[in-house]
Design brief:
heterodimer, A: mainly beta, 11 strands, 0% helix, 55% strand, B: mainly beta, seven-stranded mixed β-sheet, four-stranded antiparallel β-sheet
Chain lengths: 111, 113
């Protein structure tokens, strides 16, 4: 089955810096790659996703890139703000299957 | 739509007792997922259903765990008997097949003492 590895497990940045989180997946048939943000005590919420027919997608300060050949994808957050502090999860799936999540990255943005 | 609804939000029970967690998916969604979240293991997939039929239960840790989906608007996850190592946050999520975007409920925090 699918296996998703996520790095780093913790990331500390200064406000205004960029943050990058990387994930690799094992199943070459996976074609959907979402990123979720989870604040303390809350549910995971989708922040951005990308499908395998697209190499990059942006939404304001957030971008995701996908390298199908290498089977890895990354989340980029620019101009980080304290409210970006949370746990971020990457995931992968193929049509009709469940999302398999990475172990998460705890992002801390200090002002 | 109110989103995915889980109950209870918190459950404290004694070891050996039966625990039942409940989930109401978003109307029209045909996939329902149960995940367990712990610090050590992250978000683990336990089981998922498509059109009320269990598709993959390979993530269910032991026979003590069982899940049902009697209709499109309700699912349960039961643990019998419960053990302290079952303490975790259990999330239910649902999706509409083609979109694949999964929406999570607020979770049930289970503590087994």
């Amino acid at each position: 089955g699918e296996n998703v590895e996520q790095h780093p497990s913790t990331l500390s940045v200064q406000e205004g810096d960029s943050a990058v989180i990387k994930c690799t997946y094992s199943d070459s048939a996976s074609n959907y790659f979402p990123w979720y943000k989870q604040e303390l005590g809350k549910r995971p919420q989708l922040i951005i996703d990308i499908r395998s027919n697209v190499g990059e997608k942006k939404d304001q300060r957030i971008a995701v890139t996908l390298n199908k050949t290498a089977k890895h994808f990354s989340l980029h957050i620019t101009e980080t703000q304290p409210e970006d502090s949370a746990v971020y999860f990457c995931a992968a799936s193929k049509a009709g299957t469940a999302l398999i999540f990475g172990k998460g990255t705890t992002l801390s943005v200090s002002s | 739509d109110a989103g995915v609804i889980q109950s209870p939000r918190h459950e404290v029970t004694e070891m050996g007792q039966e625990v039942t967690l409940r989930c109401k998916p978003i109307s029209g969604h045909d996939y329902l997922f149960w995940y367990r979240q712990t610090m050590m293991r992250g978000l683990e997939l336990l089981i998922y259903f498509n059109n009320n039929v269990p598709i993959d239960d390979s993530g269910m840790p032991e026979d003590r765990f069982s899940a049902k989906m009697p209709n499109a608007s309700f699912s349960t996850l039961k643990i019998q008997p419960s053990e302290p190592r079952d303490s975790a946050v259990y999330f239910c999520a649902s999706s509409y097949s083609r979109a694949s975007v999964a929406f999570f409920g607020q979770g049930t925090r289970l503590t087994v003492v």
